[in-house]
Amino acid sequence: MKLSTKGRYAVMAMADLGTNSDGSPVSLADIAVRQEISLSYLEQLFGKLRKSGVVKSVRGPGGGYLLARESSGIRISDIILAVDEPLTATRCSNSSSEGCRSDKGRCLTHDLWQSLSHQIYLHLNSITLEDVCEGNVPGTRPDMFPEIDPATFAAE
Questions:
Q1: Beta bridge partner(s), residue 57
Q2: pTM reported for the whole predicted model
Q3: Which tens digit of pLDDT belongs to each residue from 120-147?
Q4: 5-85+126-144: what fold?
Q5: What is the CA radius of gyration of the chain?
Q6: Number of neighbours of residue 144 by Cβ within 10 angstroms
Q7: Long-range CB contacts (< 8 A, 24+ apart) of 80-83?
Q8: Where are the domains of the chain?
């Protein structure tokens, strides 16, 4: 599964907002400069984030965006799902019982990929925006991972 720029940029922008808002609105232009993301792309993303209730907008001079609730109450999965980013590793639609094969059947590995999708969702749902802003993302400490020789994964 590959998370598209839509989901990654939405999380980056929300982390920027969470970090740089001191209770006053943050402009998308400022986020765009700091995160090196197109302003027009951010406008599209924040329209979706506002519709889903993750952020709120403030109009007028000094306007911009604020978090709609505390960063501890915003899950990374909320952000990704708000911008219509699918959290699935299968080609099948989650809302359909039909598979992705031409005969509408499911492939032999469907359950494997469905399980991976579920684990990804659980992981992103267990991390809050506050965790990201404070650098407290679980599983990122280097001492938690054994040294892995990159040659182990080299193509033969």
A1: 65
A2: 0.79
A3: 889 999 999 999 999 988 776 555 555 5
A4: Arc Repressor Mutant, subunit A (1.10.10)
A5: 19
A6: 8
A7: 80/3, 80/7, 80/10, 80/11, 80/124, 81/52, 82/10, 82/48, 82/49, 82/51, 82/52, 82/54, 83/6, 83/7, 83/10, 83/45, 83/48, 83/49
A8: 5-85+126-144
